[in-house]
Write a structure and sequence with these properties.
The chain is α/β, with parallel strands linked by helices. About 25% of the residues lie in helices and about 30% in strands.
Length: about 180
């Protein structure tokens, strides 16, 4: 598990990397977590965007930096994982290709860092049922992962995701 990194030499923060196939809702989920709003028009992420969030959880202040990474940069994934505390893998329940993408990226990351903490997020962009996709069953069962279903448009599942992100992070000291 990664320890916090310094922001401007002041507050420690935890780097949270969001990965998923283009169009699965990475940016919408992050924006809902950070600013409680979602754009209705789809605009693909080009490169990397950073979003910061200060969060109080169990009487501790956490400073989270969410990395929204375009999947056009997949060839550099291992570079983005440096100092990451959590990787959030996002798929769309209705998009089979996004399930395959998650399986492939998981294996790449697990190979580079066997101790990385993963969260698996299923976006219900079209109001789908929460039934786990069959081609993700092996990933879920073999690695004891939970699928966090959510819908940024309906603000469904967001607080549960934030709790899951922060839950196993080292607690900041009282001075932080």
């Amino acid at each position: 598990m990664s320890s916090p990194t310094q922001v401007n030499g002041f507050h420690p923060y935890y780097k949270i990397v969001f990965l998923g196939k283009q169009g699965v809702g990475k940016t919408s989920i992050i924006r809902r977590l950070v600013a409680s709003n979602v754009d209705t028009e789809y605009v693909p992420t080009l490169g990397i965007y950073y979003y910061n969030l200060e969060l109080e959880y169990q009487k501790h202040n956490y400073y989270l930096q969410f990395w929204d990474i375009s999947n056009s940069l997949d060839y550099q994934i291992k570079n983005f994982l440096q100092n990451a505390a959590v990787v959030v893998l996002i798929f769309d329940f209705a998009d089979r290709e996004s399930h395959i993408y998650v399986n492939q990226v998981f294996e790449t990351i697990k190979e580079a860092n066997p101790f990385m903490k993963f969260l698996l997020v299923g976006n219900r962009s079209k109001g789908e049922k929460e039934k786990p996709p069959k081609n993700l069953n092996n990933l879920v069962n073999e690695h004891n992962l939970t699928i966090y279903p959510m819908s940024p448009q309906n603000n469904s599942g967001m607080s549960l995701l934030l709790q899951a992100i922060v839950h196993d992070l080292p607690r900041p000291t009282e001075r932080d």
